[in-house]
Design a protein that fits this description.
The protein contains 13 helices and twelve strands. With 348 residues, it is α/β, with parallel strands linked by helices. It has one domain: Alpha-Beta Barrel (TIM Barrel). The strands form two sheets. The protein has a ten-stranded mixed beta sheet, covered by helices on one side. The radius of gyration is 20 Å and the shape is globular. It binds iron/sulfur cluster (2 copies). One iron/sulfur cluster binds next to loops.
Amino acid sequence: MTAAEAKKQSKVIPNKRMTGVKEIDIKTSFTAADSIPIKVLLDKDVIHHAFTQSRLIPVHIQFLPTNKCNLNCKFCSCSERDKAQEIDFGLAKKIINLCKQLGTKSVTITGGGEPLLYKQFNELIEYFWVKRIKIGLVSNGLLLHCAVPETINKLTWCRISNSDERSFNDVYKKKLSNVVNAAPDVDWAFSHVVSTAPNIDEIIKVIDFANEHHFTHVRLVSDLFQPESVDMQRLKTKILQKGLDDSKVIYQERKAYARGGDCYIGYLKPLIGADAKVYACCGVQYALERPSKNLPEELCLGEALDMENIIARSSEPLNGTICSKCYYMNYNILLKGLLKEVEHKEFV
Ligand code: SF4
Ligand code: SF4
């Protein structure tokens, strides 16, 4: 086993979600929005700013460079966005500089659309890299082979979005395999949307590929707009019947979310859309009573170039009660606690 393979094996996220005891590996989990936000407590800069200045810092930004996409998935949560919209690269650089000055340490480059369709994709990654901002990428994977290999090697992690709607065919597998093998230090993962009539054979190909290429995990999820459409327990049984090693699979069950309330996450983890505006969280398109499949104005915090003023008012929460479900409830409760005076602190 090579050193890179050994590192990957030690990072495997255990398959504990189906047991009833929800156990998340807090050291390796990148994206568990609904988890207990231990990482916030571990960030000394966030704690320092909260305690001394009652404000947050945008430590992790979500950056959507373009709304263009080379697919047209049925379950797409962004289908009503202006598909032609993308951030001018000069403007993107100004926003990145601003975020860096304000304390940004990491970025998730995601959609909106397919980030690889952004004309200056390689330059964008390079720009974040030079600024020493750690980079995660969410991509549908189809164009990863078109990126400069050095670009891919600058990623900390890459999550490939997949679905039963697409065939995981040999041509695609070969191209993806070449990309993954050339970037062994990147943490690779799949997020696979399971359709209402799950295509087990395709899912098995995806899990097989992940096992073979030392991916950190395969997250199986249902369509967010039809959360009850997949019986994950049944799916797991079918996968195990095929004799597959599913130790890397996270069977993501949809849970009943609470309504939104005082919302602070947008000051810690702002989403910057292809319209160069800042939104309160990465789930805003699903959050309202009638999901918009667009980034809703109601949950917009302002222009990205005004980030300094946005962050300056971070002790004032956005009114999240308009959200019928909140993905960041634990974060919002913790952030409120960090920003407000707490009496009798010693009595933990
Ligand atoms: S790849 Fe993503 S952005 Fe593109 S259509 Fe599918 S879900 Fe939407
Ligand atoms: S209250 Fe709404 S905008 Fe705020 S984190 Fe929750 S879902 Fe997102």
